[in-house]
Amino acid sequence: MNLKLNCDFDKLVKAFEAAPDQTREMVRRQVKMAVRDIQEEARDNHRFITRSGLTEKSIMSLVKDNQGTVMLTNSIAVYQHEGTKPHLIVPRFKKVLRFAVNKKFVFSRRVQHPGIKADPFLYRAADKMLPTITSRFEAALDNLLGGL
Q1: DSSP labels for 8-71?
Q2: Are 116 and 79 in contact (CB under 8 A)?
Q3: Quick one: which of 66, 38, 39, 65 has its CA closest to 133?
Q4: Could you read off the pLDDT of 5-50 as tens digits, one per residue?
Q5: What is d(CA 80, CA 3) in angstroms, rounded to the nearest whole number?
Q6: Which residues pair with 104 in a beta bridge?
Q7: pTM, to two decimals
Q8: Are strands 104-108 and 111-113 parallel, antiparallel or unpaired?
Q9: Is 122 helix (H, G, I), strand (E, B) or coil?
């Protein structure tokens, strides 16, 4: 998912013409804050049941060349985000699987996993934070143009 801001590009062009270094720094700062806000919103508001906190910790952000990215660094987090279809689990190296059912261990040659319901928490966080990010970017641009 790409998040795109709609802003007054005439103002942005004027700011770049008047003060390119200050404008570049303002854009970098706004992108960094936007990525941080989406990351925090995704970590705080999700629908999956957290047990170890690894999924929340795997929500990472990166800002490079005025482009921000929020990503998942753990494959289990990707499965929780995108969901999985029901599938069969077959052991690769052992003859049987051992798992707990009602606090008793059961052995089976294969298990039918019901799948994981998708929880697109990154997309929801981006959609929720978009108005805040847009208004903050516009305010910073107006502030920069007002100071020139």
Answers
A1: -HHHHHHHHHH-HHHHHHHHHHHHHHHHHHHHHHHHHS-SSPPSSSHHHHTEEEEEETTEEEEE
A2: yes
A3: 38
A4: 676 778 888 888 888 899 999 999 999 999 999 999 999 998 888 8
A5: 21
A6: 101
A7: 0.81
A8: unpaired
A9: helix
Q: Which residues of 123-148 are buried (b: 16+ CB within 10 A; e: fewer)?
A: ebbbeebbeebbeebbebbeebeeee
Cβ atoms within 10 Å of 42's Cβ, excluding its own:
25
Amino acid letter for position 87: H
Encoding tokens for residue 23?
């404008």
What distance in Å separates the CA atoms of residue 35 and residue 61, rounded to the nearest whole number? 6
| H helices present in 71-120, as ranges | 75-82
Cα(6)–Cα(93) distance, rounded to whole angstroms? Answer: 53
Q: What are 112-142's pLDDT values in tens digits?
A: 889 999 999 999 999 999 999 999 999 998 8
